[in-house]
Design goal:
The chain has four helices and seven strands. By secondary structure, it is an alpha+beta fold. It folds into two domains: about 40 residues, Pdz3 Domain, CATH 2.30.42.40; about 80 residues, 2-Layer Sandwich (Beta-Lactamase), CATH 3.30.450.70. The strands form two sheets. The chain has a four-stranded antiparallel β-sheet with strand order 3-2-1-4, with no helix packed on it. Strands 5-6-7 form a three-stranded antiparallel β-sheet. The two termini are about 30 Å apart. It comes from Steatornis caripensis (Oilbird). Pfam families: Sybindin (PF04099).
């Protein structure tokens, strides 16, 4: 899970070839392919890994709300490390939305509320969506991607931190 990933124009690179079988050196040698978008990151988690991590966080959230010296604590809202912050927004119905962000990134509270709005509009109002199931809705995906792009463009010191 901890290996780095290289992607060129969205296609993951494995050695000298992309996931769709293109030779990286030939691709980079063709001027028609420019501009090129190169991205480094981590391998995506599987659904099972995501579920496991979410259930661990849910347990920590519940323990945090019970052990908090603050009466009526709602649980963990943010975990901060040197390299990232994990932000959590729990709705009145108990659904938790989490965002991992750069520690300097501003506007995450607004982003979490926007994600909740997108979830309400495109998942909960979808007659084919079942609670506690993966969301399979193109409009949800498109609007979520747009919200994340807007938050990313706001930069690390944008308004509403």
């Amino acid at each position: 899970v901890g290996h780095a990933v290289l992607a060129i124009n969205g296609a993951e690179v494995n050695g000298r070839f992309t996931a769709d079988g293109k030779d990286v050196l030939e691709f980079l040698g063709n001027p028609a392919n420019y501009p090129v978008s190169i991205r480094f990151g981590r391998h995506r988690l599987t659904s099972n890994e995501k579920l496991m991590l979410a259930s661990m966080f849910h347990s920590l959230f519940a323990i945090g709300s019970q052990l908090s010296p603050e009466v009526g604590s709602s649980g963990i809202e943010m975990l901060e490390t040197d390299t990232f912050k994990l932000h959590c927004f729990q709705t009145l119905t108990g659904i938790k939305f989490m965002v991992l962000a750069d520690p300097r990134q501003a506007g995450i509270d607004s982003l979490l509320r926007k994600i909740y709005e997108i979830y309400s509009d495109f998942a909960l109002k979808n007659p084919f969506y079942s609670l506690e199931m993966p969301i399979r809705c193109e409009l949800f995906d498109q609007n979520l991607k747009l919200a994340l792009e807007v938050a990313e463009k706001a930069g690390p010191f944008g308004p509403g931190s």
